[in-house]
Amino acid sequence: MKYYSTNKQAPEATLEKAVVKGLAEDKGLYMPETIKALPKEFFDNIEKMSFQEIAYTVADAFFGEDVEADALKKIVYDTLAFDCPVVPVTDNIYALELFHGPTLAFKDVGARFMARLLQYFLKKEGEGNQVNVLVATSGDTGSAVANGFLGVEGIHVYVLYPKGKVSPIQECQFTTLGKNITAIEVDGVFDDCQALVKAAFMDEELNAHMKLTSANSINVARFLPQSFYYFNAYARMKALGKADELVMCVPSGNFGNICSALFGHRMGLPIKRFIAANNANDIFYNYLQTGEYHPQPSKATLANAMDVGDPSNFARIYDLYKGDHKTITSLISGATYKDERIRETMQECFAETKYVLDPHGACGYQALKEQLKPGEVGVFCETAHPAKFKEKVDEILSTDIEIPQRLQEFMKGTKQSIEMSKDFADFKNFLLNE
User: Fold this and answer.
1) How far apart, in whole angstroms, are the C-alpha atoms of residue 197 and residue 29?
2) Could you say which residues of the chain have pLDDT below 50?
3) Residue 107 catalytic?
4) What letter would DSSP give residue 162?
5) Distance between CA atoms of residues 128 and 213, nearest Å
6) Has this prediction a pTM greater than 0.85?
């Protein structure tokens, strides 16, 4: 499979180059040349298949031309050593719980897959190759990537995160690991972290000094595997007899998660329509209303992992539908919620159902409450365990959420991080001396 750049100014790449490089030479995001439709028989029998069987079928369509079947199967099965169940919240609204992995966030799927695929390519290249993974995080990406790559030979991870703008539990999940993980605390917002990562990829001197790649959702090996759990959600809803008028709602920040769902739809996944739920960072919502895309500085909100003012994967969505605003809006609607509404939704849902939403899932749940039509059933992504935002959730719901054992273990470690300005010259100098 060949991969092209969304900016159309870079040479085509193999999967290996797309994964190892992360970003194309023209600063565009890699897209697969073709998206294969899955056969009707697959969807006819999908409810009888396990999550891992479903995921391997999807992975084979994406990566089967470039990765040996046995190796790909091992990568998929190792990645999905946990479930992503669909849980009823109301009669017609279900939560796709994506927080049952090692760091209790949806990004465990993409991060674990990418770590294993990258290691596969490094082993093929032979000994002595080291890849340096740069990842910007507004919360959960850093912990998922750091833990997905922890101890993986030949790979060093640098996690850039905005100082004071991730939850204490999120922070401890990537600042206490040591080994091949370096945490960098940037004096800025998430967009500044992402800008440093992108600038590093474009710097010739830096790239001559060290091999760099990204583990943000700009990397095809990070975002494409996230489609696995949408296929699985459809299968589980089909088994319940509730898949005929299915609406999928995705809390959205950098838009890799909903982008993977849209790739699944292009492969034949029978989702009726999608809702992109935003917090106060409403850039995509405004695009849907106006047809004009205007990035803005990100705003700090209660749902901090979605605090993105210039979502990278918009370029992929735009490319996927050839920039046709009418096609995009016929398939995707938007929603945007300020902190006050998020709080109210969390309180209302807990009072009515006893289901504990995290602030990001609350955006998805509220969008379904408002936008579901008669006869439709909605599934929203509950993207992280509420305990990752314990202080906020406890205060809003007057609860004392139990912290899962896995999170407690992270909290026992000692913070190790390097303070950094948002000036690229400082970051570049640091990397050149590594």
Assistant:
1) 14
2) none
3) yes
4) E
5) 17
6) yes
